[in-house]
Amino acid sequence: MRRLYRTKFLALSQIAVLLSLLSAPTSVKPGTVLQSHYISLEQKACRPPVGSVLTRYVSQGLSVVDCPVVIATKPVPIGLLVVSSDERSWIELIMGDTAWSSEDEVVYEKQNQLGYFPNVGAAPAEILTDSTGTAMGLIFRVTAQNPDRQSLNPGKANASRLFILGFRKSGVCFLGITQDNTEARRLMESSTSCLRLLKSHSLY
To answer: pTM, whole model, 2 decimals?
Structure first.
């Protein structure tokens, strides 16, 4: 009975998240003033998640930390995990019981590759909201080692780009990569089409 109740609860939770995403904007409306809210990704600011969430990632041979999102977002609260595999890392956004993963975009998508060992940088991630607190998207920096560029510190990251995600009715979308924050915000504010929907999975 308990297992059946939990199954029904999770199904209802996933439906609730889906409905909330369907109520999210399709893109940023022209003239919308976006507000920035920063999330520290430094090691001292993040902690391993607890319970079954940690177990799920560890069972897959992954490391994971939870970096607190200190603002209340609409239509649902957002959580942010930094997930690591070997010498690579990416961000997963948590909405309800669903995790939206940027792994493919950061690690595998050829057009986004900056070099060896792509990793989420230490620079803060940026959630952008409209004046009502509705989350419109996320910007975060990825670093890598580009073997074609000279470096004063061999073996250290010498290339970086900002990855831009947008929140759409269909889910969390990859919008593109840029070199600087000004261009990233322009991309966010220009009603850019979704290039690809991030892959998603249930946390439980």
So the answer is: 0.83
